[in-house]
Amino acid sequence: MSNGQQSGKMWSGRFREPLDPQFENWQRSIAFDWRLLDQELAASRAHAIGLQAAGILSEDECGRIVDALRAIGERCASNREAVRFDAQAEDIHHFVELRLVEAIGELGLKLHSGRSRNEQIATDLRLYIRFHIHRVVLGHLAAWAQQLVEKAHIAGDAVMPAYTHLQRAEPVLVAHWLLAYVEMLFRDASRLEDCWKRLDYCPLGSGAVAGATLSLDREIAARELNFTAPTANSIDATSDRDFVLEYLQALTLIALHASRFAEEITLFATAEFGFVELPEPFSTGSSAMPQKKNPDLTELIRGKVGRIHGATEAVTLLLKGLPLAYNKDMQETQEPVFAATGEVHHMLYLLAAFTRALRFRPDRMRAACESGYLNAMAAATYLVHKGVPFRTAHEKIGNAVRCALDKGVELNDLTLDELRQFGAEFDQDFYDAITLDATLDCHDVVGGTARHRVAAALQEAQKRVESLILSHGVVSLGKMEALHAGA
């Protein structure tokens, strides 16, 4: 078979026999890596500028290539399906080369001078993940955090039980509970920003494995693509997918935090708790039971965690034991990235809208705080202030709780004489020390649920959310879907 019969392939010269049709279709990645078109075009432009600086392209040739690349992007922007279902292209790199040759002829073939698809995909993936960390994931994190903070402002001094072992423990402000999730989101944002710092190095110029064979100034491509610097080692640059795994691990933690919130809301919406009213736009009914309002959004969020974590596990197993440097196995790291990114984008966007629509039932939550001896810790603290060692105070209040249980009353319903049978330290001021407000305010430490501490924490959280929004913006769902069509 002549080389001409393999025309159009990027590697055809060495082969005599055609590819098995089933294998050829099976090994093509254009069906999913079409999502990297913008990144491939940007990286190709940067490489062209580097080739001009190295004297491989003239200024005119470089300008024609850059103009053609821009035209490809503009033409495909409104018809991504034409990229996804291209019958000839093996992958997104091949697609761009084919369209370039169509536009400017043989000059288009010069663009691949001094580079390899191994470094191209490493660069494209870094650009893709960096973009989605900045514009979408962090933007959606900020949007949900903002809604949690706004809901905390609205909650004011509303109280709810906090739980340990899923048993009522102590009363806290609803705002304090909401801010716990805001703190989780700040950690998620920090992890993503940290991942960004490590991936922000440019593989272009690494060649297939040993470095480019042309004297390219790698700083040029790094600068054109706004990377911190070129990667330091060509073998590592073409084989590294740590940044993919770190990114997916960060998305998994975001999903876990979303799932914990979803689980609590699912519980709080039950008749047994009755703490929240599910918003109807995010709920469905039963086909059999007319009275039902089901928490579909929160249940689906719990379910999506498995899919996102599955992407992380898939990439972990793909990378395990791979020899250096590039291996075709690495092609399989792309689909988990695209899938997990899309799931997290939608999850966070919907959570922000859901949280905005969520309504608490302060009366039910307050009633839950006023029964069940949730002021027992405050009562023990009262005795500590009277000079009683905490272990002793703990036992005295435990005995008082037992007495109240036997009588079917709360601690504040016991008479002073009944209390004094457990210790002479009890006095009339005990009752003021175990009111609901006093129980909240005795936790007067940084990070505690004392009312003035929560007010200060809320102000600080608002500043941090505003900083996150200022740095990364908030992306609308429509804009996100345009950026990540088909994910």
CATH superfamily of the largest domain: Fumarase/aspartase (Central domain)
Distance between the termini: 40 Å
Shape: elongated
Q: Which structural category fits the helices and strands?
A: mainly alpha
Please state roughly what percent of the residues sit in beta strands, choosing from under 5%, 5-15%, 15-25%, 25-35%, 35-45% or over 45%.
Answer: under 5%
> With helices defined by DSSP (H or I, 4 residues minimum), what is the helix count?
21
Mean pLDDT level:
93
SSE string, helices as H and strands as E: HHHHHHHEEHEHEHHEHHEHHHHHHHH
- In the sheet with the most strands, the strands line up as 1-2
Total number of distinct structural domains: 3
CATH structural architecture of the largest domain = Up-down Bundle
**Main CATH class of the largest domain:** Mainly Alpha
Instruction: Report on the biggest sheet.
Output: 2 strands, antiparallel
Parts with pLDDT < 50 across at least 5 consecutive residues: 1-6
Radius of gyration of CA atoms, rounded to a whole number? 30 Å
Strands, count? 6
Helical amount: 55-70%
Can you tell me the CATH topology of the largest domain?
A: Fumarase C, Chain A, domain 2
